Amino acid sequence: MTSPRYRRAPLLALAAVLLLLPGTAAAQDPVAPPAPAEVATPDRPSYDVSLRSDADGMHWTGRQTVSFRNASRTPLRSVDVRLWGNGTDRCGAPGAPSPVRVSRVAGGAPRPLAVGCTALRIDLPAPLPYRARTSISFDVSIAVPHRIHRFGRDGAHRYLGNALPLLSVRDARGPHLDPDVGFGESFYTLTGDFRVVLDHPDTLVVPATGTTTRRAGAPGRTVSTSVARGVRDFAWAAGPFRTRRVTTPGGVRLNAYWTATTSPEGVALDLKNAVGSVDAFGKRFGRYPYGELDLVMSNRLADFGSMEFPGLVLLWTEPEGSAVVHEIAHQWFYGIVGNDQFAAPWLDESFAQYANQTYYRDDTATCWEDQGYWPSGTAALTRTMGYYADGHRSEYVQVVYMRGACALHDLERVLGSRTMAAVLRGYVRDHWQGVATTADFKRAAQAATAKDLGPFWTEHRIF
């Protein structure tokens, strides 16, 4: 189950969900140290993918090529490809292999799969020098799991989030091969360009990241080509979706897709909130850069809630709507301003929840005091997903969503609304389609005021 997503009254909803999360004994796990100032590599990836589906979109097979550059002055001898779609099933079982499989690797020598079959190291034929570029390619086989999930099925509808293999990141800490802990996100990727060609039956409507064009394929089939630039991931869905397209006053095209059982009232409310929030966030943080955004809605996604991907969000939609504003905020916080989601989950979830509450004008004047206590002596906003997975899952929502968002509201009260808005806009601008750390945000905030923010960071446990 991924991290929960929340709608209009997030603090009450979060408190209720806390009662459902299992808690175990605390562990003395150190707070993650600040990331070193080191260029991440391999960078500027370009993905070229061609996949063909079976009759109902449950299986996709084809070829994927990714080219990349070595941004490090240290020669690059290997790269890691993450198969995040295997996070739940891991290495599978006899007769039930992992859902994402790679074979016939060219451009390097593959090693055995690692980290629960989510990591494939490929040794390059020769060390790749600084700023040099090369490519690898491989066959891909994707079997959609039989579960309602961001990578799963919902009746006749298929969701392929985290299904496409992606390059992992290396920096001064070495390769980032963190595990999928089963909730929240563990992803850390750099922005790149994607060209994904999906050959599928005419009966399947296929929303996808990027701008999509369609042409007739073989009899009874359609070829959908999606192009996306400067994104960290690529997701798609397939099924007999109903559709509608609207354009916001700010010029962003919203493509709505929903299942036949999804509430019409919920669809209409999601569209209304999406139109308002994507333009509002564009004015507040910087214009949405991808031209269009797909909203994929179903009333059957309660098992995992909602999930953001660049240019596409999956939404558990009921008559009262969904977490669409929170998920759209993620287009800026993790999408445009990236972060290591395993090492610093607060940098995307807390910021998205703060944006959500700001959009709805929730009363947050006393939200920090209202919570009253930290869930443990070891809790802190800057804990890693490893900390939460190691006996602290019951703290995850309260700290990352509730206290994190409240800390940002508190900072706004310290700095003033205008200054806080300028800080966030500058922070987004300075890390546009890059990667930010907690230290980066603290520097941006401190530079905006003569007040010493040291006591603020200590009180709010932002280390």
From TrEMBL:
Keywords: Metal-binding, Signal, Zinc. Residues 1-27 form the signal peptide. Zn(2+) binds at residues 326, 330, 349. InterPro entries: M1_LTA4H, Peptidase_M1_dom, Peptidase_M4/M1_CTD_sf. GO terms for molecular function: metallopeptidase activity; zinc ion binding. CDD domains: M1_APN_like. Its cofactor is Zn(2+). It comes from the Bacteria. Binds 1 zinc ion per subunit. Pfam families: Peptidase_M1. Residues 288-458 form the Peptidase M1 membrane alanine aminopeptidase domain. Gene3D superfamilies: Neutral Protease Domain 2. SUPFAM superfamilies: Metalloproteases ('zincins'), catalytic domain (SSF55486). This is Peptidase M1 membrane alanine aminopeptidase domain-containing protein.
